[in-house]
Each structure stands twice: as structure tokens, then as C-alpha cells.
Design a protein that fits this description.
Largest sheet of chain A: 9 strands, mixed
Largest interface: A-B, 61 and 61 residues
Oligomer: homodimer
Number of domains of chain A: 3
Shape of chain A: globular
CATH topology of the largest domain in chain A: Aspartate Aminotransferase, domain 2
CATH superfamily of the largest domain in chain A: Type I PLP-dependent aspartate aminotransferase-like (Major domain)
Helix content of chain A: 40-55%
Number of helices of chain A: 16
Distance between the termini of chain A: 54 Å
């Protein structure tokens, strides 16, 4: 099955490259299915699968009785990473304490919430989770009262493991350790495989929380250029690994925050192979994995982890309820150390949350909810993207996410988005400036927008205002506000 | 008020020293109140306060119309720390991974639970907490769903702060950061004031979790001799501070685990003064503070922290419900760093637990519950102590705790209690060997027993069996089993 997906993905990617390069222009007709089948030496079905996939992604029109036409060449809307800004050398992280202030605005319920990357309560089954929690207080009172087993609630870990059954390398319940959210998992994973002063390779841009984590643990960072559609550059990463001196690599192959890409299965497998060849542990942040758009769940890089080098980290904060503070990890060959660190970090994680999650998985509710969630997030992201294209100044570029609920927006005119953040905050709109997603201001003219909630009139007004203000700032020329 | 308590405590301690030294034997009459008042130059009331206190602790009998008589001289049942075993030099912690195995048995519900230090569900208001959690799911669903404010739920921190109103230096809501249990608080406090390779002074014996924490964070340790009734030796601590090179001191002045002492207010103030004089931060683990026996809540060392050098850590795991995973810290002048570390450890702590705790404090229920809890724990500890004296071999010595629910028991004959632990585990009885509460086997012949639950027939049987087995092991002579 995986091999089939590889084939159609390979063809899709090849086609997209050609479309992006202008080989096939918008409106132009593509070769027939039969012709493609001969060209690529694959079955007619595989070609059709690829065409249908690209149609679903908005690139192609399949017109019955006529043929397949290019609909959009908007393939690489976010520019390729600028290689000259990536020396691939270890540097110390020193992100200002402002980041924590950027985060804090989320606590103000009066804000228009475009800052924190988080689906809103409108698209998450708040009532059902609350009902389940109530049920746990009634029927599992003693279990909820007590410390949970150090590895986690067995019902919960058992059902977590089940979800990996179709992976080439499944995860078993014994591999799993429940954590207090994905942040604890990432922190413990980092500490399981590295020490202060060590260097860790990361995607660039990457989740600011990961950079802060590395800073706070005195790790150095090598930023690896990362493509807005394909993910981390494997050739650059190999160059870094080959040179040596890297203790770990922190990646987020599914619906990455902020870029929204999902690496193909082929590239995930190649990433794991690279980690294995150079014996560099991979810390996989899969907190957005369950939100990758589409019918089927997206496999993580962990699915290919034969050598036990992947420390998988995830949570339910982005797909169900952040307040539960429940995440989990499968730390491969580092599990013993990971578990020791977990017990000395928070001993165990909240019992009621774990039992409730176990029940939501067991009943099939969570899987059913995800199908709906992905569709709604996809719609919301598309709606917001449309609005941004309409309201923001010419030259604005933005991602086409494959999961999650954030848009990564590059403003024209070299605007420092901290200025925009500050003005927006004063107006009751919370957005996240892009500069903290990498070092040395590489993304200082980017903005991350959360499309976790429907496009209500206040959100539309906020977007219009942001667009106008971005235009004003661009007109004033490149500068940094204090 | 504090000065008055100092006076009566000073007199009580002086009397206890005399009783312990045999100056007044059991059955003997003490000087009259009037005579004592003249001797110590204090009011008659203060002497009466002291006599009543010692009567409540079981040392004196006050017989109306007759006088005050010594009832028990069992004052220093646990021997004084052996100074020759305390070089007061930094050493690396290396406690075996067995400790985590010792802890794990707690997860087996079939065990007789004498291992983990924890009041049982019989003495904690499980139903009321569950009802409150249910209430939160109904009336605060959105708040419970979301990430909580990074510092914690305002209702909760506000009521936490209120409890310190009578302290010489009260804590304000702004000083507080909610954590995922006390372990996270201790871990963040440690990281806020020290770095790998630094040295931390600790009580000896001390909670094994603290030693493991120091090990896992690569801190060195100076063990300071600690008296079973008076607490850490302030003169030895000053010697350590004076020599320099100590980054912090980790103490537990209230109902310390495992010794069960509560430092007098005077000694707490002196401890804080010492920290201030030498500018060494104090990390105060007050997780047992709410269980100190008596009508009034015991003030922590933090109550005297004018200089902001005390990093106070507590939780509700030992006084209400461990499964909540809710603790809190007041990190004084280190609060900014502490908060940064907290956000990169678990971001925020479980929302539903915080809101529920806020409500239980607000309604006065928690305070009311504590009064009952202290009484029941005191009774249970006394009942278990009586049973141990009855069932254990001659020469067994044990503490007379002032709070909490553990007994610290020294077996005769140089028995290594790991052997007892192993035999007990095989028999379905969970106890904790004493060796892991200090380094170099100083307490290898000690055993910690949890008296958190009533003395049911299975517990009585377990104690009888433990006593018999301890006698067998003692008869077999000193040895260590693998």
C-alpha cells in the first residue's frame, strides 16, 4: 500500500514541479492518462490517482470527455528558502523574552484570536469531552483520584498504539509514555538524547516553542532550510549530519507549524534513513499530525523507525482540547531514560484527562471527530487565505497548508511584523510575528495567522485592518519598530 | 503573635531536652507553673501553653489539683545523626534505577500500600472533589477546554495567596505560578537557580525524589545532618554556606518526609536568615505543610522571606488528590526565570484541576477538610506506631511525626531493608527501603511506612509479617541481599 502511495505521490510531485516551473501554464491541457501511464511506466490507475489528488488540491481541473487542465500554478507561493542565509553552522539561540509576551495575549478572551495556533472551540467537541470527563468522575473516581501508572493509563496507551497498526513499524503500548502535553514530551526527548552545549538541527522556520526550548536548555542550533511544500532539505541535513557534532534533529513532518507542509511518505522514510545512517536521533513533533487534511490519517516519520532512533512526541491540544494537558511520546531506544526524566519532571500526568482520552479513543469518537475537524480546518484555512489575498497589499505571499490551521504570510516591502503585532495588540487583535520562528531575522517580514475559528465578522474586520496596516507599513519602507 | 509562639516553643524544647536526657524521668513531677514562670522569666500563660502542648504531644500528664508529670521520655527515639558520616563535601548523586521500581509497585492496586507516602482515599474527600470537577465541566466548559493563563487560574492563585495573609511576609497572587504538581515546581526551582555541575545542600535523610532530581540534573549534593525532631542542623548548614560554592539549599521544614519533624518558627526564621546572610537560595518543598497536626496551619520558611530568596513549592497531592497533578510555586526574585522554564516545560497546567481547586479553596471546603485530615492522619500514624512497637523486634526505633503520614523506622541488627522490601513485594506488601533517602547507605537499615490509610486487618497482618521478617533478618546478621 505504501509503495502505491509512493508512486502516485512521486508523479504528483513531478507534475507540480513542472507546473511551478511553467512547463504547463494555467489553462493548458496535460498529457492523457494513457500517455502518462506509458511515460512513467505506471498503471493507468496510478496516474488517475495522481490527477485526482492534484484536482483535490486545486491545481487541476478534470473535465470529463475533454481532458485534464492546469487550474493554478500557485505552487510555490512562499519563496524558496534563501540558501545564502543558511551557513549550516551551530549558533546559540537567544530569542527575546518578548516571545512569552506574544504568547500571553492568548489569555485575554477579548482578543480576536489570530495569534496562538489552535483550532477554536467552535470546531472542537467541547461538550462531548466535558460529558466524558463527568462520566470519569462518576465511574472511575478512585482511578482519577490516584497517581496514574508512570507510563500512563493502560486503556489510553493501548488505543494510542492501535492507531499505528498499519505503519511499517507499529508502536506498541509498552513503547508509550504519557506526558503533560507535547511540550513536556519534547523537553524530555531533548534531554534524553543531548546535554547542555550540544547542537540540534532544526527546520527553518520552525515552531518558536522549539527554539525557546533549545535556548532554555542551552543547546546550540543548526537551522536547515525548509521548503514550504516539501519540508526540510534532506541534502542540507545530510551535509550537517556528515560534518558531525549534531546530537539530534528536531522535525515536524506533518502539517508543520508554521509552514503547513506535510512531507511525503517517501521523504519521511528518507529522513529516518538519514538519521539511521548517521546515528542521529530524530525528535518528531507530531502535534499537528491528526489534522492533516484528507480521509486517511497521515503516518509520521516514526512509522519507518526500525532502529528506534525516532523520539515521537504528540498531544491532543491541537485536535481536541488544550486544557487537558495530555500528550504522549514513544522514545524508541531512549525510552528508559525518557521515563526516568518524566517521573522527575511531573511524576505522572493528570489522571482524569488520561482516562477520558482512553474512552474517547475506545469509543471511536475521536477518529470520527477528526474526519470532521480536518474538513472544517481545511475550509477555514482556505477561507482565510482567500480573505488575505483580497485584503493584503500586492506582493503578499502565503502558504497553502496541507493540515493544521495556520497561514504563514510574507508581507511585501520588508516590513518588520513586530510593528504590526504591536499595533494589532493595541486594537484587540492577537497575531504572531514571524521573526521568532527562526534566528537572525530570517522571517522578520512574516506573520502567522491562526485560522482555527470560522471567519466571523470580527475576524474579517481584523483581517481587513491588518491588510490596510501592512500596506501602510510597507509604504513607509523597511524599518524596525522598538 | 509569632514572638509568643517562639517563647512557648523555646520552653517546650528545653523541657524535652531535659526529659530526653533523663533530668526528669517518666512518672516524675515537673516544677510548678509559677516556679517555671520565674525560672524562664515568662508569663504563667506561656508556661501553661508549653505544658499543654507537651501534653498534646503525649509527653506530659496534667493532673488537676496535683501537678504536671512526665508521661513519656521517648523523645529522641530515632538516634541523633552520626556526625562522622557527614563530611559536608559535595558528592555526585548516583541512586540506582531501582528507586523507580520501588515507586512503580504503587500502581498495583492489589498491594498493601505502605510504600508511597500518601494519605489514602479513605481520608480524602474523593466524592466532593469529583462533584466539583463535574461542576466545572458544566459551568466552566470553555475555560476548562482552553490553555489556562501561564501563571495559573486567577481564582486559584488569588485564594492561594490569601492563605498567607498572616505571614510576616505574605505571598501575593502575582508571586504565584501554578505547576503540574510539586515535582515540576521543584524541578523548575532547581533549574531557576543552578546549573549542571553546581552543588546543592540537602537535609539527610531527605525525600528520594529530591535526590533523583539532583542526579538527573547533574547537580552535586552536600548532605547536612538533620535531626528527627528539630530538622536540618543550622550550624552544619552555616559551615557549608560559609565555605561557599553552594548554589542552593533544598529543605522541607514542615512535616518532613521521611522524618516527620516540623521546624519551629524560630528555626525557620533562622534558616531564612542564614540563606539571606550567605545569599544562597532556599528551595522549600512544602508538600506536607497542610498536614502538620494541630488546629492552625503551619507557616513555611517562605513566611519569613523578606529577600525573595525562598523558592516555595507545594501541591495538593498529599492533602487532597494526587491525580489532579496541581502544584504551585512562589519563586521570589527568581520568578521571571521560573515562569519561562514553566512555559517550556508544560506550557500551562491542567485547566479543570486548577478551576476545581480554586472553587474548593473559595468555598472554605479545603480548610475545613484539612482540620479533619490532620486529626485522622495523626490518629493513623499513632495507631501504626503502636503496632510497630508491638510487632517489630526489640531495638526497633521510630519517629514521632508532627505531620504527614509516614513512620521512619530503624531496624535493629544492621538489616539492609532492600531485602525486606523484596520479600514484602513478593508477598503483596509495598514498603519503601530507607537507603535511597540519603547517600552512602547511611540509612540502609531504615524503612519508611505509609500510615495514610486506616489500620485495617490486611495492614495489621502486613505489619505483623514485616516485624517477624525484620526479626529473622536481624537474627541472620548484617548483610545485603542482591
Amino acid at each position: 500500500m505504501i509503495d502505491d502511495r509512493f508512486l502516485y505521490e512521486r508523479i504528483s510531485r513531478r507534475l507540480l514541479e513542472q507546473i511551478g516551473a511553467g512547463t504547463f501554464a494555467v489553462g493548458q491541457k496535460l498529457p492523457s492518462v494513457r500517455r502518462m501511464s506509458a511515460l512513467f511506466k505506471v498503471s493507468v490507475n496510478t496516474v488517475m490517482q495522481s490527477y485526482r489528488h492534484l484536482e483535490a488540491e486545486g491545481y487541476l481541473d478534470i473535465r470529463p470527455q475533454s481532458g485534464v487542465y492546469v487550474r493554478s500554478s500557485d505552487v510555490h507561493d512562499i519563496p524558496e528558502p534563501d540558501g545564502s542565509r543558511y551557513p549550516l553552522l551551530p549558533v546559540e539561540v537567544s530569542l527575546s523574552e518578548q516571545v512569552l509576551q506574544y504568547m500571553e495575549l492568548h489569555a485575554d478572551p477579548a482578543m480576536v484570536r489570530l495569534g496562538i495556533a489552535l483550532p477554536g472551540p467552535e470546531v472542537l467537541p467541547v461538550d462531548r469531552v466535558m460529558a466524558t470527563l463527568r462520566d470519569v468522575t462518576r465511574h472511575h473516581a478512585l482511578e482519577a483520584w490516584d497517581y496514574m501508572h508512570p507510563n500512563g493509563c493502560p486503556l489510553f496507551t493501548h488505543h494510542l498504539a492501535r492507531r499505528s497498526l498499519s505503519y511499517p513499524v507499529p508502536v506498541t503500548a509498552e513503547d508509550i509514555i504519557v506526558t503533560s502535553g507535547a511540550m513536556e514530551a519534547l523537553s524530555l526527548a531533548l534531554r534524553s538524547v543531548s546535554r547542555p552545549g550540544d547542537t540540534v538541527a532544526v527546520e527553518s522556520p520552525t515552531y518558536y516553542g522549539a527554539l525557546l526550548l533549545l535556548e532554555t536548555h542551552q543547546r546550540k542550533v543548526v537551522e536547515v532550510p525548509t521548503h514550504a511544500r516539501h519540508g526540510i532539505s534532506l541534502s542540507a541535513l545530510e551535509q550537517v549530519f556528515r560534518r558531525g557534532g549534531v546530537a539530534a534533529c528536531l522535525v515536524s513532518p506533518n502539517a508543520q507549524n508554521p509552514l503547513g507542509f506535510t512531507m511525503s511518505l517517501e521523504r519521511k522514510a528518507a529522513l529516518v534513513a538519514l538519521s539511521e545512517r548517521y546515528q542521529v536521533p530524530l525528535i518528531e513533533n507530531d502535534v499537528w499530525g491528526d489534522t492533516v487534511y484528507g480521509e486517511e490519517a497521515a503516518a509520521p516519520a516514526k512509522a519507518f523507525d526500525r532502529a528506534g532512533l525516532v523520539l515521537y512526541c504528540s498531544s491532543f491540544s491541537k485536535s481536541l482540547m488544550p486544557g487537558l494537558r495530555i500528550g504522549w511520546a514513544a522514545a524508541g531506544r531512549f525510552q528508559k531514560r525518557f521515563r526516568e526524566l518524566k517521573q522527575l519532571s511531573t511524576i505522572t500526568s493528570t489522571s482524569i484527562s488520561q482516562i477520558a482520552m482512553g474512552r474517547l479513543l475506545e469509543s471511536g469518537f475521536y477518529a470520527q471527530h477528526l474526519r470532521e475537524l480536518r474538513e472544517r480546518l481545511h475550509d477555514q484555512v482556505n477561507a482565510m487565505a482567500k480573505e488575505v489575498r483580497r485584503c493584503f497589499p500586492p506582493g503578499t505571499r502565503l502558504t497553502r497548508p496541507t493540515g493544521g490551521c495556520v497561514l504563514w504570510v510574507r508581507l511585501p516591502g520588508g516590513v518588520d511584523t513586530v510593528a504590526l503585532f504591536q499595533r494589532a495588540a493595541a486594537r484587540g487583535v492577537h497575531v504572531f510575528p514571524g521573526g521568532v520562528f527562526s534566528l537572525d531575522g530570517k522571517h522578520a517580514d512574516y506573520l502567522r495567522l491562526n485560522a482555527g475559528s470560522p471567519l466571523t465578522p470580527p475576524v474579517r474586520r481584523a483581517l481587513r485592518w491588518l491588510g490596510e496596516t501592512a500596506a501602510e507599513l510597507a509604504a513607509a519602507g523597511p524599518r524596525r519598530e522598538a
